[in-house]
Write a structure and sequence with these properties.
By secondary structure, this protein is of the alpha/beta class. The chain is built from twelve helices and eleven strands. The protein folds into two domains: 213 residues, Response regulator (Rossmann fold, 3-Layer(aba) Sandwich); 153 residues, Response regulator (Rossmann fold, 3-Layer(aba) Sandwich). The strands form three sheets. It has a five-stranded parallel β-sheet, with helices on both faces. The chain has a three-stranded parallel β-sheet with strand order 1-2-3, sandwiched between helices. Helix 2 crosses helix 3. The longest helix is centred in the C-terminal third of the chain and has 23 residues. The radius of gyration is 23 Å and the shape is elongated.
């Protein structure tokens, strides 16, 4: 945010970007922050960035259009967030988790594995991945989908589901005790995955006789007591780290090709220099390691471009009848300086949403294009 505030030449009279962070990644906390920041008497906000995980993002994304606020996120991959009829003013710069089911199938295909079990947290994000894989598996059986060199009738799978406040270890034991599976998918958040991994260690469910697939977006060193904030008597950090080195992670790679690392992005900084700056900032205790830091920068940059485009239109005296604004011309309100925006200005809120659709640039991560389907990165 500091870098973008410096590098963005804001058109007109507008305030720098600021950030408010919910204390926990939950529905309640994100809504609390949103309502506090939009309550009567508070300075009107012109956009929402976040809210972090899909659980926190979903409720805010579903209501932000009632305040005529555009909303963009960089760490929320729930597939249903692509539904424009529900999330009208919402965009994102991270791919949907719809990509994970084909990726898991690809891992099976690559290693010629025939079976796997999902240990799944009862949240929409993870239930969707499980549902997507089950549908993909059925399509293979029905001949609707083909995977090269894969005997699609041989896939055996099962799943054990646990509640948010339930016992992930008990769910894992239900699968372990069957004795049929040697490949497991940790389809849950990292704090639960850590407990399951410890139970697997106790049972010696380790490489090379057992395989584990997990998400690459977990926090750095998520298996340690320091990051998890919770002590486990049965397993040390060192034991869990050894386990991790023999597991496989599914990672969505946000980095450009190596040859492009040193090319200056549209924000005036190269990927290489951005990574160096981020690494330097981590030495400050106020910063925490993030697995999505590079896409977060491009997300804030896209927001800055949208705001500048909106301000340019106002300063150019673009009228409601202009063809660029045909989707918004029927709404009440007008283009005003960004710092004069209020939540009843439906016309300006719509214009900002439409201007998000026009954002495309070369970022420090990938080429970013925001379109009518919320977002696509290439």
């Amino acid at each position: 945010v500091q870098t973008i505030n410096i590098r963005t030449q804001c058109r007109g009279d507008c305030a720098p970007l600021k950030v408010a962070i919910p204390p926990q990644c939950t529905r309640t906390d994100s809504l609390d922050v949103f309502f506090k920041d939009t309550q009567l008497g508070a300075v009107p906000k012109i956009a929402v960035v976040g809210c972090g995980c899909s659980t926190a993002t979903e409720p805010v994304a579903e209501i932000s259009h009632y305040w005529n606020i555009t909303h963009i996120s960089f760490a929320s991959a729930l597939s249903s967030l692509s539904d424009r009829s529900r999330f009208r003013y919402y965009f994102r710069t991270t791919p949907s988790f719809a990509n994970y089911a084909p990726a898991i199938l690809g891992v099976l295909n690559n290693f010629n594995w025939k079976q796997l079990a999902f240990i799944t947290q009862n949240q929409n994000l993870f239930l969707q991945i499980l549902s997507d894989f089950e549908e993909l598996k059925q399509n293979l059986v029905d001949g609707k989908t083909e995977v090269c060199c894969f005997d699609n009738h041989d896939i055996e799978m099962d799943s054990s589901i646990f509640e948010d406040n339930g016992d992930p270890v008990a769910a894992a034991i239900k699968i372990f005790d069957q004795g049929r599976f040697h490949l497991f998918v940790l389809n849950c958040y990292s704090k639960h995955a850590r407990k399951i991994v410890c139970e697997a260690l106790k049972r010696n469910f380790v490489y090379p006789h057992y395989g584990w697939i997990m998400f690459g977006w977990y926090p750095d060193k998520w298996w340690t007591e320091e990051v998890a904030g919770e002590h486990i008597d049965e397993c040390s950090d060192e034991e869990l780290e050894t386990f991790m080195k023999r597991s496989r992670s599914l990672i969505i790679d946000f980095l450009p090709e190596p040859d492009d690392y040193y090319q200056t992005a549209d924000a005036g900084i190269s990927t290489d220099q951005f990574i160096k700056n981020y690494t330097q900032n981590l030495r400050d205790s106020e910063y925490i390691i993030s697995t999505v830091y590079i896409i977060a920068f491009d997300t804030i940059w896209s927001l800055a471009l949208m705001l500048n485009k909106t301000e340019e239109m106002r300063m150019s005296n673009v009228s409601k009848e202009n063809s660029q604004l045909m989707n918004c011309s029927h709404l009440d309100g007008e283009l005003v300086p960004l710092n004069e925006f209020n939540y009843s200005n439906a016309f300006m809120g719509c214009v900002m949403k439409e201007n998000f659709h026009k954002v495309n640039f070369t970022g420090v991560s990938v080429y970013t294009l925001l379109d009518q389907h919320t977002v696509s990165n290439s």
